[in-house]
Amino acid sequence: MKQLLIYISALGTLLLAQAAVAQDVKKTRTISGITRLRASMGIETVVRLGETESLHIEARNIPEDKILIEQDGDELILKLGLEASLDKKVRRSVKAYLTVRQLRGVSASAGATVKGESTFEADRFELSSKAGATVALALNVRDLTVNTNSGATIDLSGTARSVSISAGSGASVNAGDLVADVVDADAGSGASVRVNAQKELFGKASVGGSVSNKGPGRTVSKRTSLGGSVN
Keyword Signal, does the record have it (predicted)? Predict the structure, then answer.
């Protein structure tokens, strides 16, 4: 009888633990003053412009307390707790729907996905991605800085006056639909960069990296080494 009670107790504990993991999470949080986003650990984020700032989370198979939401100044940080990020046995899904009045920067890493549903305008915009992250944005900016590596993928459209791109370690930047006056692009270690320079292109490629220009701009500077290409 004692062993049976122990077994039933253990089974009950296991079922409760499984129920906690399998729970769905839906919550909306009021935010203020956000102009930058940092997302990681496989979180999918959809960003749009709106008069009222807000953050809505929808998640499956993850406890609510493992979804970490932080604000550091004007930056919103979305990530998962360490235990959740390390446990690969459970298929989890975390989607964030972010509404901001203005967006000036995005950082994505560790398989995160960031997709814009508006065209974001700013004087300066900073974008970084790494470790398999995916970012897709439409921009209307004066100056754009892009840093990416480790297999990340970036798709950009819109307009910019000046664009600086640094890509490495198999990263891919498709900015062929981002019409820019001047572009400075550097691709290394198998990275691929496609741009649309209307006036001037400064290109550098090394170790199998490639820079290609869709636009009519002249190539002012072209530096290649170790199998890199600029055209």
Answer: yes
Q: What are phi and psi of 137, to 5 degrees?
A: -140, 150
Q: Which two tokens stand for residue 174?
A: 């498709």
Are 156 and 174 spatial neighbours (Cβ–Cβ below 8 Å)? Answer: yes
Assigned CATH for 133-230: 2.160.20.120
pTM of the model: 0.89
Fold match, 27-118 / 133-230 = yes
Q: Would you give per-residue pLDDT tens digits along the chain (231 residues)? A: 445 444 444 444 444 444 444 579 999 999 999 999 999 999 999 999 999 999 999 999 999 999 999 999 999 999 999 766 556 667 889 999 999 999 999 999 999 999 999 999 999 999 999 999 999 999 999 999 999 999 999 999 999 999 999 999 999 999 999 999 999 999 999 999 999 999 999 999 999 999 999 999 999 999 999 999 999
Domain regions of the chain by residue span:
27-118, 133-230
What is the spatial distance between Cα 205 and Cα 218, in angstroms, rounded to a whole number?
A: 17
